[in-house]
Every structure is written in C-alpha cells, then in structure tokens.
Amino acid sequence: MQWTNQFYKNQFLFLKSSVENIPTAYFEREAQKITEQVGRPFETVLELGAGMGNIANQLALLGKEVMAIELVKELTEHAKKYCDEKMTIICGDFYTINIEQQFDLLIYLDGFGVGNDENQLRLLKRIYNWLSDDGYALIDIYEPNYWRHVYKEEMRPTEYTKIIRQYGFDEENSRMLDTWWHMEEKNDKYTQSLACYTAEEIYDMCQQANLEIVTYYPNGAMNFKTWTYCDIAPLHHCISYRIKVRKK
C-alpha cells in the first residue's frame, strides 16, 4: 500500500491540465448515472478516494450533503478551491479515518483493491458501518479477465500530454498493474497495483462483510486491436464493473 500517495500525486500532476479542460457536462452525466443507479431519493453521500472532487461536487450541486475523503494533500487542496458549500473535503486514509456518521449513499469509484484481500474485507466492513440501514454503496471492482488480456498494452491517457501508460497483470496475485511515465523521463515510472475480483469472488467477500450485492453494472472495455472503446462490455470482459450493495 506504500505506492498510493506517490502514484496518485504524480497522476494528478500528469493530468491536472487535461482534467481541468474536461467539460462539466461529463461530470454532470456521471452524477446523474449515480443518481439513477441508486434508484431512490438520498440526501447524504460519502465518497472514498474522491480525487479532484469533480463528481462529489456535482452531487453537491444537486443538493446532496457530500463528505469526500482523499488521501493525497495536493488533490484535496485542488478540490477545496472548486467545491460547493454543501461539500466537505477531508484529507485522510479511509482505511484508518474515524467517521461516526452514517450515509444514505457511499461511492468508491475507480480505485477499490488497494492492499490485499484482508484490507479489502476490512474496508467492506467499514463501509457496512458507514451505511444507514436503508443506504446503498456503489463500488467499482476491477475484472481480472480483462486485465489478463491487455498485458503490456500501451496508450496515452489523453492526446494532449506526453504521458505513457502501460497495462500489466500480476497473475499470481490477480492484480491489475497500471504504470505511468513521461516520455522524456522514462526512468521515473509510477505504478498502481489493485486487486481484481470476479463477480463471484466479490460476492463472497461482501457476504463476509454482511453486505448484499443488489446489482452488477458492467463498465466499458478497450479493444486494442481496433483502438475502439465500448461503453458497456460483458461482465467478465469489462475493465471494471460497479456493484450496488446494501446491508443484509
């Protein structure tokens, strides 16, 4: 877990200017998708690993009371510059942070899998405690089969940067590897390593945390042979899928 701060800080520095130019409409659509996936009214939100806070801010603009937890100081400071007054941003580690409040909705997008299985189970149990009795959590899970088949594929996160990212897969530990570097600084590489779980594996883990999976939402997949992206791919072939969980 020691790689996290360094990787996400440098990813932020690599992409800061590009993300700032993403149209607000993109984040509005993501917030609307979350609202639709929840499927019922909700008022309070906790986001884990909020990054620059774009989606959390859009939920706040929809009138939700949002608390966002982010590990990296630079990301937290950036988010505070643009956040709505209904959004609270805390710099901290959600594996250890003390939060007594319960929430109607918890979201953890594009990041689940830091550490080993024991860490994930401990986090799921914390998520259980943070949910209100009728609350839901939306969590993105990386799918191992996709990452197994894109081993050593390279791409640029955006066409406007000189950043390269290379995908990898740790077969023994079933972990996706995502390595970033600047074209002109090839010796300075930063890698995130996140545990991947099949739908069946994450179901069993949620059961141990006394959580029930209500729905699986497949995300997209990149076809590197044709360089085309499909917005929604089959569950066992997508980059990641989203689970909607509640207390059992």
UniProtKB/TrEMBL annotation:
<dbReference type="GO" id="GO:0008168">
    <property type="term" value="F:methyltransferase activity"/>
</dbReference>
<protein>
    <submittedName>
        <fullName>Class I SAM-dependent methyltransferase</fullName>
        <ecNumber>2.1.1.-</ecNumber>
    </submittedName>
</protein>
<dbReference type="InterPro" id="IPR029063">
    <property type="entry name" value="SAM-dependent_MTases_sf"/>
</dbReference>
<dbReference type="InterPro" id="IPR041698">
    <property type="entry name" value="Methyltransf_25"/>
</dbReference>
<dbReference type="Pfam" id="PF13649">
    <property type="entry name" value="Methyltransf_25"/>
</dbReference>
<keyword id="KW-0808">Transferase</keyword>
<feature type="domain" description="Methyltransferase">
    <location>
        <begin position="45"/>
        <end position="135"/>
    </location>
</feature>
<keyword id="KW-0489">Methyltransferase</keyword>
<dbReference type="GO" id="GO:0032259">
    <property type="term" value="P:methylation"/>
</dbReference>
